[in-house]
Design a protein that fits this description.
With 168 residues, the protein is mainly α. The protein is 68% helix and 7% strand.
């Protein structure tokens, strides 16, 4: 439902386009900067390591700048609602825990992080009883540990709990 139908806008098209283009501009600038550090010229033997990434970074920056200018020049009637507050809240309710999960994998290992992640979603969003939360979240990690570590012999990131249990 758009704002035209009574919803409250969290972002409009102009703001969304500017935010995404600015993020890509920063990414392109990082590529350009690092390419110059590596060497971005053509020398007698051919291109230096940063030659092609340098130009890709420039293209990303130029495209982003054009997108920002076009967004700033966007007519008011085209600046409709991009996402409403309720929709954004739903997206963030999945995005933020997922980002925390990814960050925790490096510290706690994939199995403990997965237990916490699944438990959070089951309890918070699904409103399941604690015994089901514990059974599914622990069972899932145990099954995946057995499949990856024992059956396929693929080591996945482990943390302090696995070290204490001697599973490293």
């Amino acid at each position: 439902m758009s704002e035209d139908h009574g919803g409250r806008a969290a972002f409009r098209y102009r703001a969304a386009e500017i935010a995404v283009a600015a993020a890509f501009f920063v990414l392109g600038a990082i590529v350009v900067f690092d390419s110059v550090r590596l060497g971005a010229r053509w020398i007698a033997d051919g291109p230096q390591p940063g030659y092609f990434p340098f130009y890709l970074g420039l293209i990303i920056c130029a495209s982003s700048a054009i997108t920002i200018v076009l967004a700033l020049l966007m007519p008011a009637e085209n600046n409709r609602t991009f996402v409403e507050r309720g929709q954004l809240k739903l997206v963030l309710s999945v995005l933020i825990p997922s980002a925390v999960y990814v960050a925790l994998v490096g510290w706690l290992g994939i199995y403990v992080s997965a237990v916490l992640f699944i438990a959070l979603f089951m309890r918070w969003l699904g409103k399941y009883p604690w015994w089901k939360v514990a059974a599914v979240s622990l069972g899932n990690s145990i099954v995946f540990f057995l499949i990856f570590e024992r059956w396929f012999l693929v080591p996945l990131p482990k943390g302090p709990v696995e070290t204490l249990l001697g599973l490293n």
